[in-house]
Design brief:
Helix 9 packs antiparallel against helix 11. A six-stranded parallel beta sheet has the order 9-8-1-10-11-12. It has a six-stranded antiparallel beta sheet with strand order 2-7-6-5-4-3. The chain is elongated. It is of the alpha/beta class. The chain is built from eleven helices and twelve strands. Bound molecules: adenosine-5'-diphosphate and magnesium ion (MG).
Length: 313
């Protein structure tokens, strides 16, 4: 089971937790530049920054020349400044040691750190945390009980990803991956012989969702996720995945039982109708009994299938 970090494991409502700036620029100014830009983005991180700025009473303005770089961040012009906001891959001239240390310690707490570059140099950072859902540890235990490995895929930094993965007892983690690489990782896992289910919100992971053997769209996500996925979890709760797995396993078991019933009637009935017993005992299958057996085979299959309704998952 491969999980995209934003959208599943967490509450899906990331919150702004810290703003750190270098001398010469204050928090409010940095937030104004960053949040004004983020109004143009549909990423959950953007929503966190915009509402965090509003909660802190920062007034926003309109940005121009807005550009969104998939899996990296956003850039544009605000208040006559060139502003970029995103991960390490997006920004240049990041040299402030104090800021670097702050970034690492926030990442070690499992927070997502976005660097803010103004007119070509990184002058601050914004951290966002998405609290782990109360139900997640239990859901992960249940997935493990089904003997399924859980792997996290994320465009976020290695340090943040490792912090989250170890807190949650995940089996493996791929960090700093771009959307195209998410697709490649799914393909590679498949070529290693794994059956891959992928859960995501459709933001930067729709191709990976479509490539997985089973795509699971989180209902808190986007329409494209539901288009690409085979399963939609309406409540965005990871335990829904466990229930889906149990239901699908029970369904496969049921299908096999049904095939057994269907073949059993035919395997016995057809040879008797063809006369295998006739030379010994003179027994043939009367068409009336054959017709009844045919119907009973359908009845047994349907009755057995209906048991799925009573299944407790
Ligand atoms: P994930 O795989 O965790 O869903 P994404 O691939 O969507 O992450 O994004 C990867 C990284 O790119 C984020 O952790 C963030 O640093 C940066 N990023 C993406 N979109 C934005 C945005 N709108 N604003 C700021 N940073 C962004
Ligand atoms: Mg995502």
């Amino acid at each position: 089971l491969v999980i995209d970090k934003t959208g599943t494991l967490t509450e899906g409502k990331p919150k702004l937790t810290a703003v750190v700036t270098v001398p010469g620029i204050d928090d409010a100014k940095l937030l104004r530049l960053a949040a004004s830009l983020e109004r143009g983005s549909e990423h959950p991180l953007a929503a966190a920054i915009v509402s965090g700025a509003q909660e802190r009473g920062v007034e926003l303005t309109t940005a121009s020349a807005f550009e969104s770089k998939t899996g990296k961040g956003v850039s544009g012009e605000v208040d006559d400044h060139k502003v970029s906001l995103g991960n390490q891959a997006l920004v240049q001239n990041f040299s402030d040691m104090a800021l670097k240390e702050q970034a690492e310690s926030l990442r070690r707490l499992g927070q997502t750190v976005m660097l803010v570059s103004v007119d070509g140099a990184v002058v601050g950072l914004i951290a966002v945390a998405d609290p782990i859902k109360d139900s997640t540890p239990d859901a992960i235990k249940q997935v493990h009980e089904e003997r399924i490995r859980i792997v996290m895929l994320t465009g976020d930094s290695e340090v943040t990803a490792r912090a989250v993965a170890s807190k949650l007892n995940l089996d493996d983690v791929y960090a700093e991956v771009l959307p195209q690489q998410k697709l490649e990782i799914i393909k590679r896992l498949q070529s290693e012989g794994h059956k891959v289910a992928m859960a995501g919100d459709g933001i930067n992971d729709a191709p990976a969702l479509a490539q997985a053997d089973v795509g699971i769209a989180m209902g808190t996500g986007t329409d494209v996720a539901m288009e690409s996925g085979a399963i939609t979890l309406v409540k965005g709760d990871l335990r829904g995945i466990v229930r889906a797995i149990r239901l699908s396993r029970a369904t496969m078991r049921n299908i096999k039982q049904n095939l057994f019933f269907a073949f059993l009637y035919n395997a016995l009935g057809i040879p008797i109708a063809a006369g295998v017993l006739y030379p010994l005992s003179g027994v043939l299958l009367s068409p009336m009994i054959a017709a009844a057996a045919m119907s009973f085979s359908s009845v047994s299959v349907i009755a057995n299938s209906l048991r799925l309704r009573k299944l407790s998952i």
